[in-house]
Amino acid sequence: MQQNFAGAPMPMPASRKNPLMWIVTLILVVVIVVVCWMMFGDKLMSKTSVDTEKYQAVFLNSGQVYFGKITEQHKWLVLTNVYYLQRSNAAPLQEGAAAAPTESDFKLVKLGSELHGPEDAMYIERSNVWFWENMKEDSKVLQAIKQYQAK
């Protein structure tokens, strides 16, 4: 401890008095940042990266892939103008076959043409989405979608 000219001890600066207070303050700041990120981070990230002019490929945790336009991104992704690929009947899986499926083994299906007649929108809980991507204009799937729409 330092002493002044009169020999009396000088008080320590406030910044050195209680290091525990600095640690508590730092922990509190980190907790506030983490809570804010958990509440708002996904909304900020997703809203800035969805190109609403383009189609997106949405990959689900189940392995299914859907193509369409993401219109809302809160707890649920809303996918509209939805398509998916279906393995054609003409291309059955062969046991022990080493060849990978070709493009002609799949057909593009528009959501809504199924037996149960769903509307053309999917509501997908975010926890079921593995990832999604904006599709490029030269995508073969996007070209097939445009051909389907031209019919």
| Largest sheet entry | 6 strands, antiparallel
Question: How many domains make up the coordinates?
Answer: 2
What order do the SSEs take from the amino end to the carboxyl end, as H and E? Answer: HHEEEEEEH
Shape: rod-shaped
Count the DSSP helices. 3
CATH secondary-structure class of the largest domain:
Mainly Beta
Q: Mean of residue pLDDT? A: 79
Q: How would you sum up this structure in a few lines?
A:
With 151 residues, this protein is of the alpha+beta class. The protein is built from 3 helices and 6 strands, in the order H-H-E-E-E-E-E-E-H.
Description:
This protein folds into two domains: 14-48; 52-150, Roll (SH3 type barrels), CATH 2.30.30. 30% of the residues lie in helices and 28% in strands. The protein contains three helices and six strands; from the N terminus they run ααββββββα. Strands 1, 2, 3, 4, 5 and 6 form a six-stranded antiparallel β-sheet that branches. The longest helix is centred in the N-terminal third of the chain and has 31 residues, at 19-49.
